[in-house]
Amino acid sequence: MGYLLLLLAPAGSVAALVFAACLAFGVLRQGEGNEQMRKIALAVRQGADAYLKRQYTGVAIFFGVMFVILMALAVCGYLTFFVPFAFLTGGFFSGLSGFVGMKIATAANSRTAEAARKSLNSGLRIAFSSGAVMGLTVVGLGLLHICLWFYLLDWFYAGDPDKIQKITSTVLTFGMGASSLALFARVGGGIFTKAADVGADLVGKIEAGIPEDDPRNPAVIADNVGDNVGDVAGMGADLFESYIGSIVSTASLAVAAGLGINGAAAPMIMAAAGILASVLGTFFVRTGEQAGQQVLLRALRRGVYISACIFAVVSFFLLSMVLGWDRIGIYFSVLSGLLAGILIGYFTEYFTSDFYRPTQRLSETAVTGPATVVIGGLSLGMLSTAVPVIIVSAAVLASYYFAGGAHNFNLGLYGIGISAVGMLSTLGITLATDAYGPVADNAGGIAEMAQLGPEVRKRTDALDALGNTTAATGKGFAIGSAALTALALIAAFRDRILVLDPSYQLNLSLMNPSVLTGLFIGGMLPFLFASLAMESVGRAAQKIVLEVRRQFKEIAGLMEGTAQPDYTRCVDICTRAAQKEMVAPALVAILAPIVTGILLGVHGVAGLLVGSTVTGFVLAIMMANSGGAWDNAKKYIESGNYGGKGSESHKAAVVGDTIGDPFKDTSGPSLNILIKLLSMVAIVFTAFIMSFSIIK
Amino acid sequence: MGYLLLLLAPAGSVAALVFAACLAFGVLRQGEGNEQMRKIALAVRQGADAYLKRQYTGVAIFFGVMFVILMALAVCGYLTFFVPFAFLTGGFFSGLSGFVGMKIATAANSRTAEAARKSLNSGLRIAFSSGAVMGLTVVGLGLLHICLWFYLLDWFYAGDPDKIQKITSTVLTFGMGASSLALFARVGGGIFTKAADVGADLVGKIEAGIPEDDPRNPAVIADNVGDNVGDVAGMGADLFESYIGSIVSTASLAVAAGLGINGAAAPMIMAAAGILASVLGTFFVRTGEQAGQQVLLRALRRGVYISACIFAVVSFFLLSMVLGWDRIGIYFSVLSGLLAGILIGYFTEYFTSDFYRPTQRLSETAVTGPATVVIGGLSLGMLSTAVPVIIVSAAVLASYYFAGGAHNFNLGLYGIGISAVGMLSTLGITLATDAYGPVADNAGGIAEMAQLGPEVRKRTDALDALGNTTAATGKGFAIGSAALTALALIAAFRDRILVLDPSYQLNLSLMNPSVLTGLFIGGMLPFLFASLAMESVGRAAQKIVLEVRRQFKEIAGLMEGTAQPDYTRCVDICTRAAQKEMVAPALVAILAPIVTGILLGVHGVAGLLVGSTVTGFVLAIMMANSGGAWDNAKKYIESGNYGGKGSESHKAAVVGDTIGDPFKDTSGPSLNILIKLLSMVAIVFTAFIMSFSIIK
Questions:
Q1: Using CB atoms and an 8 Å cut-off, which of residues 327-386 of chain A contact chain B?
Q2: What pLDDT was estimated at residue B449?
Q3: Is the pLDDT of residue B1 over 70?
Q4: Mean pLDDT, rounded, for A238-262
Q5: ∠ CA A547-A551-A556 to the nearest 5 degrees?
Q6: A630 pLDDT more than 80
Q7: For testing contact with chain B, the best of A610, A651, A663, A666 (most B CBs within 10 A)
Q8: Taking the model in full, what pTM does it have?
Q9: Of B233, B235, B243, nearest to B140 (Cα)?
Q10: Nearest CA among B437, B417, B392 for reference residue B135
Q11: ipTM above 0.85, yes or no
Q12: Which has the closest alpha carbon to A371: B577, B532, B373, B205?
């Protein structure tokens, strides 16, 4: 049954890609607006291309080096020869989905502004459709990548009695390519976007006194590019990694759980069902005219919730067919994950939206100055960690016991893995609502710069404001799914140790000193990583400041609007800086499990992975929610509360918002990558670590 | 041999108390200075008395309730009947040492100022002597408390074949009284001191425009009281708890390690050796005239290092006598802890003192405004966590393997426990250098308010500046020792489960879902706790603001200096607020392990304890070091760098400093209490949890 239903997976991935292509053509068919709009959109597009070009150059070098290292490991017998190639294909597919996402997002921004001239619904549809292209491309290519390798290995290992075991444990090691690309896209994108943002503001708004989004500012395009780089490509790569990571780790846990091919096929079939549900859900996203923020939000939510319901129904029947009625508890594991994802999104909104008390109270602390608003925001972020932690904990326990963990430990771990698959199943539409944000943001900028009428700008503002809310909930979802995926990967890491050496005396007790010190070091790593990322933003922003000052001085007629600034240069500086600043965090993420493994063995590594997942999860939520709340507290004051725009409390809130920028857009999200990449590196290097560790 | 040498413990504790009494009389024999100085000192003293009076009222109610609960547990057979009484005595001894410390500190402040009129060395000696009184009282009373109960139980269980086992496992549960008092002293003290500080500044400096430390400000005395409340009584209670916690947990681990009475006696004998070394070390703390900051620091360091060397030599001979030559590896476990404590202090200074690059660079970020200095400080704090984590990890591993953990797991755990004892052995003098700080701070304030000559104020300023450095290193030491003590307590918790039910199927694997969710919840608790503490400071400061405003308005002649403000009222408000705000954090710390235990069993609790220790340790270091670095970055600017006092960069640095206040003096230190109290509660409630847990 598993083999037959597994055909749904390639079918689903192709369907996702075809539907994404249809949506993309639908978007591209729309008008781009007047000349001014086309000019701005072109500049953003060129900037994004410049970014992609340089990033892929850096990525190519990194992948080249890693390929050689993996080949060396394969030659020495620590890996199969498939891994170096799968490393390349994983990176390629992840990079391709980022490329497609950026292309459509930078094509849709001016078209959204143009469509908003017609009606609010038209604008929403264009922006959302381009988000859906991104979402469906990510899930389509992710699933396709897994299917291609699965069928290749299925053919290669044909006739081998341990075929399924060999396939799944090989496919498991394939996540590292996507993880590595995610590191570049998410961490690099995070550094890029905030360096451009802060740099543009420091010189443009403060020194030169020109407004935000002014086309004379050489960094303004870099700023707009940054939105796409961080929130489209970065977020996409992050979730691409979670998506395939959760699927392959669950598949690899199926064998030990005694579920065989059916268990290995189940996560892929779930993914296919999720794609179907996501595609259907997109049709329900529409709104009337005169829609407020809450109505627009409900329009997006409707799509997500309907997709979740469809998935819940379809997956019930599919799972009962694949795994049989006696294993139907696993279905509830899937549901636990699905529900946890929705709940985390909801509570993230509660803590960061100015519709609710926490952020409103944060605005009030701005009245007594920047110090109190910073303390208030940090405090809010710390407090807000409690609910998501409890939700994920409940999901872990529920999925473990529903799957039958009380009687069979390995079934319980499989349950945890498949709950991550459940959470990510409707990623096609969840990511669509998220990638929608920067498109709407850019559309607002274009409407502003091209001086479209007040009615249009009111519409683009409404669409943009909605994007801020979905960005916050999207971050919560990304963190939650990263944590659950990391747990699935850690379980798979444990499984891999026992596959490599079934007689290994594995002692993962908290009281094993290697595990304990691993936990401490792992618990510290997110702090170190977040610190490095924040420092990077500071240094990169400084470079932008110097460049913008230089252009203001050297390009004659720039301030009068008769000469064009050199946008590409700023984009290039941001990209270079992002690439360069990536080196230290990348080395930390890749070397930490290897060095810990050599010193403390696989026990130390297991501690490291769990420690970093726990602390990384909590710290990432805190940073994302503090940042989101500061942002919206500032907006709440700007909308006329506590003195309004220009007041002392507004200035204090701006300080909070500036601190929140690297929090929510650089350091916080980069922790998602850290916790997954650590696990992926550990999985790929397991055999190496087991051979060379000092403490066994 | 153990029994004979154990006599050193009561002898040592009595010696510490006698020597402390001699030092105290030496301090009290000094002159209190002129009338103005006496008047100010009296006000601080009255404030401190008012604080103690109200705090002990609150504590009495809490202890009454807890006594009833513990009695109920004892009646139901979940505890021995000794525990409720030991709970009271532990609280009493901890409270008594806080009482003595506050009394001597508030007596020494004016005497230090007066002595500084004679020479720098005289001032240093008085301030340091009063610190030494506190330090030696803490270790003397701590060790005395353990000895009293040990000999009482020794008599009670006389003839019982499992005597040692019964004594140690009973004494183990005695730490909760000290833990609970530490909660009030450290968290309450932290809220008190920052509420007074922030409240006094907001109205006095900003609204009324009067200088800091101006006697017309009704909150100024509360501010001075706060220094004593937070850094003397709070720090003392914190380390009192670590001190006895490390000793009793190590003693309880001795039986499972097969070391019997000798192993149980060893930590107490080590403590006695440490007292001897501390007393001798105090004689080496002296300086000449014309001493700069570095010379003064070296004077204090000399005392600490000489104590450590003496301890290292003496403990070698004592341990070889108690445990025999074949167990001499345990001596190196002790040394690992001792060395780790010294190294953590050193690196804390590196990251927070403006003699070194990190804080100097932080000052530079103030040039571009408050946002960059806040980001820089948070980033610095996060980065600074790496070194202490690696030091503690190395100490854990080293002490485990030195003690023989490779062959006998329980010996390894004993090694971890005794390394905490080693770190805390010279607490008598370490705490002296720390409690010295607020005395010097108060002396500086008194010299300022009493308008003593510039030569004297230069001396008190030098003494005060030194106090800032020792405060930062003292915090690092307190956190490091809290983490190591918590680990010892967790090991003892595991041991206690097996003592209560030797057939219990203990599975502390990371992959046990109860352990895993416990880790997540535990990892989140420090964030929740820190958030609650920060919110509390904000609310309490608000009350002080209202009261100071009221007094300015209602008391005629106050601003002209003809009428006296009502200092006691502000002190009382701070105390009340601190007590009231304690309720939520106290409930979190006490209920978290019990509720987790009921839901997830002892496995969940073990995960909770380890998770909170890991995250709490890292977060506490980050908060303490960020706060310390902001404080000193401000001072560095004030000393004439980057624009100096009154410049824009100074204003930005003040924002950082204000944020750092609750970080370093409230939330950060309160995490030390959290991680130990969670363990103590878990230990006391082990039998209860094992009976009533849903998931076993």
A1: 365, 368-372, 374-376, 378-380, 382-383, 385-386
A2: 81
A3: no
A4: 92
A5: 175
A6: yes
A7: A610
A8: 0.95
A9: B243
A10: B437
A11: yes
A12: B373
Name which of B465, B137, B525 is nearest B300 in CA terms: B465
Rounded-to-integer distance, Cα B404 and Cα A169, Å: 37
Instruction: Please give the tally of structural domains in chain B.
Output: 1
The rounded distance, in Å, linking the Cα atoms of B525 and A29 is: 53
Q: How close is the nearest chain B Cα to the Cα of A184, in Å?
A: 21
CA distances from A559 to A41, A216, A564 (A): 21, 6, 9
Which residues are CB-contacts of B407 (< 8 A; sequence separation ≥ 6)?
Answer: none
Burial of A152 (0-12, 13-18, 19+ CB in 10 A): middle
Residues facing A676 on adjacent strands: none
Residue B34 CA: distances (Å) to CA of A650, A679, B115, B225, B450 = 49, 68, 12, 20, 9
DSSP B259: -
Is the CB of B382 less than 8 angstroms away from the CB of A523?
Answer: no
Exposed e or buried b for every residue in B612-628, given b needs 16+ CB within 10 A?
bbbbbbbbbbbbbbbbb
Per the listing, tokens 């809290």 go with: B482
pLDDT over threshold 80, residue A206: no
3-state DSSP of A67-102: HHHHHHHHHCCCCCCHHHHHHHHHHHHHHHHHHHHH
- What residues does B509 pair with on adjacent strands? A509
Selected for mutation to probe chain B from A389, A493, A514, A674 (highest B CB count within 10 Å) is A389
Cβ neighbours of residue A134 closer than 8 Å, sequence gap 6 or more? A97, A100, A101, A104, A105, A232, A236, A431, A432, A435
Count, residues in chain A: 696
Cross-chain CB nearest to B396 (options A369, A517, A528): A517
B634 Cβ neighbours under 8 A, 6+ residues apart = B650, B653, B654, B656, B657
The dihedral built from the CA positions of residue B678, B680, B684 and B689, taken in this order, carries a sign that is positive
Residue A23: closest CA among A105, A130, A140: A130
CA–CA gap between residue A286 and residue A296 (Å, rounded): 8
Report yes or no: A540 at the B interface, CB cutoff 8 Å.
Answer: no
Q: Radius of gyration over alpha carbons of chain A, in Å?
A: 24
Per-residue pLDDT, A491:
93
The Cα–Cα gap between B489 and B608 comes to 13
> Which tokens belong to A137?
């491309």
Average pLDDT, integer, range A465-473? 82
- Segments forming the whole domain that contains residue A237: 2-692
Size of interface A-B (CB pairs under 8 A): 202
Instruction: Give the chain A residue nearest B395 (alpha carbons).
Output: A517
Find residues 158-217 of chain B whose CB sits inside 8 Å of chain A. Answer: 202
What pLDDT, in 10s, does the model give residues B103-121?
A: 999 999 999 999 998 888 8
Helix (H) / strand (E) element for A247: namely: helix A235-256
Question: Of B516, B527, B617, which is closest to A382 when you measure between CB atoms?
Answer: B527
Q: Report d(CA A80, CA A496) in Å as an integer.
A: 14
Q: Token pair of A673, please?
A: 């990558």
- Nearest Cα neighbor of A684 from A227, A24, A169 is A169
pLDDT digits (tens, 9 = 90+) for A325-343: 999 999 999 999 999 999 9
Give the range among A17-31, B29-43, B237-251 with minimum mean pLDDT: B29-43
Angle among Cα B655, A371, A195 to the nearest 5 degrees reads 80
Closest of B236, B222, B233, B232 to residue B194, by C-alpha: B222
Distance CA B121, CA B218 (A): 33
* Chain A, nearest residue to B207 by Cα: A368
